[in-house]
Structures are given as structure tokens and as C-alpha cells.
């Protein structure tokens, strides 16, 4: 990648997309193309094709997606599968039709079976049933991986197509969604503990038993990993992947229980009350820890400790009313 490369970041206003833009800009990239949802509806095939024909980017980071936590996935399954499938299919195909050789698709750790062996390796994909609450979203993300693999298989040799996929663990950090019902676990906890602190509430009740294990990665670490993978030499990348197993995990390297996470968020926010658990609510997958050995072998490792990342995430929450008031 040269500084003259034209790079389209799809989803630049989202948490991951905005972090990718920050990372690219920090590396000296100035020819970054972005579009808001109002300017370009990525579910509209004709609009996406027209955009690519006009802009003809050199690289594409496909970070645009409809995302949410357990409640959102369970409540809006049709939107999660439809919108994500349409975005992936439209962007990847339009990229190919307009000569884009380098594309990076961002997936999710939920692609792996609910009871996959831990830590989850890339070859666990499609070896078991998915977590029911987010199965539609997971299937859409699996389809994105297979789209990239299929275009590589059919057009890699003849057209130089080199489309890659990275599967992040649970992400958090600046630009997150703090909606009280539709957010992921860390932003939801930040908001709830913040409101409880202001209200001097004696306790905060968390969904589930608190025993599930989760791994969390700071979003700027994810962005750095994405740019790193995008720019790896093709031969080096292929040494660590396979034509039908081309995605790479991006994880922090260790996990904690939801109870431990809640306690850590409480400390970051400064909430001093009691933390209780509603065991009648679903836990989701028992454990989700990524095996990131492939990425580590390719020269990248996470750097942001969880406690420091949570402090930065809470500062972002306090300083950005646009996210706090969602």
C-alpha cells in the first residue's frame, strides 16, 4: 500500500470503521473515501455499483454491518440476516466488477459453533450448531467469508483478486453504541453503571449467571490488526491460511468471566454499589476465546490492557454526547 492508494472504508462512522480510519490516517494515508448511510445505502445494489464505478478504489475495508447484543439479535433476526447479507454481497461483487484486488472483510467470533473447543481455531468453522440467539447474524458473517473465498478461487489467478477476512473477538472502545437495549455487553455495562452512580443506586443487576467467559479487544487494536493483515504479502498470508479456510482470528489472548468484567467496568466508572445477577435471563455461549496463533505468527499481537481500555472507553462515553444519548 502506498500513500497514493485510494482506500474505501465502508462503515466509517461505526466503532471499527472509525478506528480503521484513525489508524490509516496515523500511517499517513490521505486518500480515504467514505460515505455515510444517507449518502450511500450499501443494501442498494444499483447504488453500490454506481459508487464503485465512479470512485474505483484500490483497497476496501468492509467494516459496515448491522450489529448488536443478545437482545438486539434475538429481537430483530430478519434485519440482522438480511441487511448484513445484502451489504456483503453488494460491496464484494461491486469491488470485483470494478477492479479492486485488495479487500478486507470484518466478521465476528459468533461464526463458530456454540460449543466449539476453546480456544476457538479457524478450522472450527462449520463444525457444529451456532448459538441460537445470534444465528442469523452469524450465518450472514459466514456468508461473507465464503464470498471472499469464492471470488479468490474463481478470480484470484485470472484477475489478481485477493480478498481476506478477519474475525475479531468482542470489541469495545471509542465510538461504541451505548443504547440501553441494543448494545453489546461492555457499552451496556458502562451506561448502566454510570446511570447507577449518578442515581446513587444501591445495586445493579446483570443478565445471566455471570459465569460465561468472554474475551475483549480494544477497537484500536482491532484496527491495527486489520491494516496489518490487509498489507501482508500475499505469499506470506497464504502460508498461514488455506483456500477454503482463509479467515484469521483477531483476539486479545485471554478471557474473563462476565462477573469479573462487570466488576472491572464498575471500577472504571467509579460505581461503589452491589452487583447482582438475574439467573432467569440467558447467558449466551458459555465461553468464547479465540485462538490467535495464526495472527501472532504473522507478526501482530494485541497491546491494550483491559483496565486501561475500559477507562478510555468510559472517557469516550462521557465526552461524546452523540453516543451517550443513543
From TrEMBL:
Query: Which Gene3D superfamilies does the record cross-reference, listed alphabetically?
Result: NAD(P)-binding Rossmann-like Domain (3.40.50.720), UDP-galactose 4-epimerase, domain 1 (3.90.25.10)
Q: Site (Important for catalytic activity): give the residues.
A: 108, 110
Q: Which residues take part in binding substrate?
A: 192, 207, 214, 283
Kindly state which keywords UniProt assigns to this record, in alphabetical order.
Isomerase, Multifunctional enzyme, NADP, Oxidoreductase
Where, by residue number, does NADP(+) bind? Answer: 11-17, 106-109, 141, 168-171, 184
Enzyme's top EC category: oxidoreductase
Q: Where is the NAD-dependent epimerase/dehydratase domain?
A: 7-232
Give the E.C. number(s): 1.1.1.271
Q: Which HAMAP family match?
A: GDP_fucose_synth
Q: What does this protein do?
A: Catalyzes the two-step NADP-dependent conversion of GDP-4-dehydro-6-deoxy-D-mannose to GDP-fucose, involving an epimerase and a reductase reaction.
Q: What is this protein called?
A: GDP-L-fucose synthase
In which organism is this protein found? Propionivibrio dicarboxylicus
